[in-house]
Amino acid sequence: MAVEDKHISYRIYLVAFAIFLIAIAIAVKLTNIQWVEGDYYRKLAKERTVKNFVIPANKGNIYSADGSLLATSIPNYTIRFDALAPKVENFEKNVQALSDSLATVLGKSSGFYQNELRKARANNNRYYLIARGLSYTDYIKIKGFPLFKLGAYKGGIIVEQKTIREHPIGKIAERTIGYEREIAEDKFDGKGIEWAYRKYLNGKDGKILKQKIAKGQWKPIRDVNEVDPQDGYDVISTIDVYIQDIAHHALLKQLQEYEADHGCVVVMETETGQVKAIANLGRASDGTYYETTNYAVAESHEPGSTFKLVDMMAILEDKVADTNTVYNTFGGEIRYSGKAVRDSHKGGYGKISLARGFELSSNTVLVQAVYDNYKDSPSRFVNHVNSWGFNKKLKMDFEGEGRPFIPQPTDKHWNNISLPWMAFGYGVSVTPMQTLTFYNAVANNGVMVKPQFISEIKEWNKTIIKVEKEVINPRVCSPETIKKLKAVLANVVKKGTASKLYSKDFSMAGKTGTAQVNYGKRDGTSMYYASSFVGYFPADKPKYSCIVVVHKPSTAKGDFYGAGVAGPVFKRIAQKIFTDVPSTNEIKNLNKKIPKQESNYNEYFARLQKQQRFVPNVKGMPGMDAIALLENLGIKVKAMGMGKVKTQSLQAGQDIIKNTTITLELL
After folding, report:
1. Fewest beta carbons less than 10 Å away: which of 132, 302, 409, 584?
2. What Cα–Cα distance (Å) separates residue 11 from each residue in 1, 24, 409, 481?
3. CA 36/CA 30 separation, integer angstroms
């Protein structure tokens, strides 16, 4: 018995010793955790239970030149309820009034909301969904409801904000307005104005500290942000919504009529280079057209006969020939190294002047004029082309600008047909925007300006950056050459290849172009036509320049030439702008006051001044009209949505306070 007790004692001592060792290990571990690794674990615990969330800053708006909204950020709100946050007395005191208030905004009965709120509290629900997809106006209302107005900590309201980018004018100019998107975590890409000017538009994000209350559920710790977000600046584009609408629909109509693959149109203000309209439409598989690629900026291709203006400028500037120099068209065909250059008119035009050859777009005349005068020194001709910027990008703010190609005499691929083929727009590659910039220089009396899409960057009414006109080349050629070029460009419309476009009511000048695309390719790519027209209007005092390019018009429609396919788009734009511009006829100023009229005016003006001290009622007004009215009264405006004004955050009749901001909800 004694021996057995002794064995038991040994076992007890062994267990006690093991427990003692475990206790020492635990003590060492606790000491290590507390003092050695304490900071790490405290930081880890905090990160898992409390962390900063980013509050995205509201992007600045993009406006058209006439003040219309092209892109705007609309805040979208989700409201949740932490049912355990309010004290019992606060909950019971306000639950009925809160339910009544929610019913007025969200549409369901008061009884429904009271039942749901009580159920959430009974179930210890700390993340109950009240509503999502709310406008700013509804969010402000709900935030001020009984119980919720006590805030996140005492009232239990949880607010989640998300920003949505909207284009109030729809799909028009969508590709130029562009976008910014997240393609992977912290990696973004985009297109157009949105992407090019993102550093101004995006502003600076804020931060808010939240505490984890359940799996995937976080609640703000306090009512105020750790760092408040700073809104982005507004970008004022050069786009004129009225001209944009004309250009878009004129191009769309022609693409549909000719079942074309894609096309583009650009309208530029001659003096400043400001782009007033740009439309890029591609055909989908179902036959509809939409903005997908910025063809005007990104697509570099052989221009065809619109390149002949380059020939004319070089020839006239070097004085190697003149507009009255006569050339034989040789029955409409000439050959270089066994390769034929043909006129579109079978049989040619006989013997005609250089000017007439340009007006009729004779390939044989222009090729002879270039080849005969530059064959011994092709670099002399090519240097002109380079000096006018065709061999390099325009360096637009947009990414994806097409790469031009101008063969150089020093290239290993230069051969006997390189020069004659350049003369009628083949073997070279340029973008529509480059071609337009060159023609605009002629319209602008030799001053080449860079195309502009932005005029200002503003913070409300304060100008941050004013984008000035950028001159690329102050003089592309002599005034004498400009005068002759303007004459032949006007004659193209009056009596040349574009004579069907001529109108006695308004003048236009320009050049037709028809290029064969993918000719000679051996990769199975089929050849098609690209029809173009580029010029300016009015012909005598150019206000706007314009280019139209239509790719792959259906030959089954009977016409694929620039005059018949692209030309009507140009004319429709010019005609619409001309016919809708108010008359500029001078009216004799009698400088005589009419007493009754003066009295009525003074009375009206005094009444208007009195009214302007109060916020007007803009409910039901079109959004653009309401914004214009309010801004003219000195009120800052934030508009959400599109259409007519549904609600306004400032009540009609209240005093206007300087720098007041009003929020309009549009539907």
Report:
1. 584
2. 16, 20, 102, 115
3. 10
The closest of 620, 603, 599, 614 to 654, measured between CA atoms, is: 614
Tokens encoding 14: 């062994």
Q: Give the closest residue to 314 by CA, choosing from 266, 261, 354, 274.
A: 354
Q: Are 150 and 90 in contact (CB under 8 A)?
A: yes
User: Is there a contact between 176 and 297 (Cβ–Cβ < 8 Å)?
Assistant: no
579-596 pLDDT, tens per residue? 765 444 443 444 455 554
Task: Give me the sign of the Cα torsion angle 95, 101, 105, 109.
Answer: positive
Q: How far apart are CA 56 and CA 79, in angstroms?
A: 17
CA-based nearest residue to 135, from 667, 665, 519:
665
The pLDDT of residue 30 is 76
- State the DSSP H helix or E strand holding residue 208, giving kind and residue range, or none if neither: strand 206-214
Distances, alpha carbon 610 to alpha carbons 603, 606, 621, 655, in Å: 11, 6, 22, 11
pLDDT tens digits, residue range 472-502?
999 999 999 999 999 999 999 999 999 999 9
Taking only the tens place, the pLDDT of each residue in 425-438 is 999 999 999 999 99
Characterize 205-221 residue by residue with b for buried, 16 or more Cβ atoms within 10 angstroms of its Cβ, and e for exposed: ebebbbeebeeeebbbe
pTM over 0.70: yes
Q: Residue 422: what residue type?
A: M
Cβ-contact 261, 592 below 8 angstroms: no
Residue 408 burial by CB count (10 A; 0-12/13-18/19+): exposed, middle or buried? middle
Q: Which residues of 102-123 are buried (b: 16+ CB within 10 A; e: fewer)?
A: bbeeeeeebeebbebbeebbee
State phi, psi for 162 to the nearest 5 degrees.
-135, 140
The helix (H) or strand (E) run that includes residue 314 is helix 308-318
Can the peptide bond before residue 56 be classed as cis, meaning omega within 30 degrees of 0?
no
pLDDT tier, 173 (very low <50, low <70, confident <90, very high otherwise): confident
Q: Are the CB atoms for 202 and 196 separated by under 8 Å?
A: no
Range in 37-41, 169-173, 399-403, 661-665 with the lowest mean pLDDT:
37-41
Q: What is the rounded distance in angstroms from the CA atom of residue 309 to the CA atom of residue 484?
A: 11
At residue 406's C-alpha, the angle toward residues 405 and 408, to 5°, is: 130
**CB 255, CB 282: distance < 8 Å:** no
Say if CB 264 and CB 554 are below 8 A apart.
no
**Residue 186 token pair:** 């912290």
Determine contact, residues 103/113, Cβ cutoff 8 Å.
Answer: yes
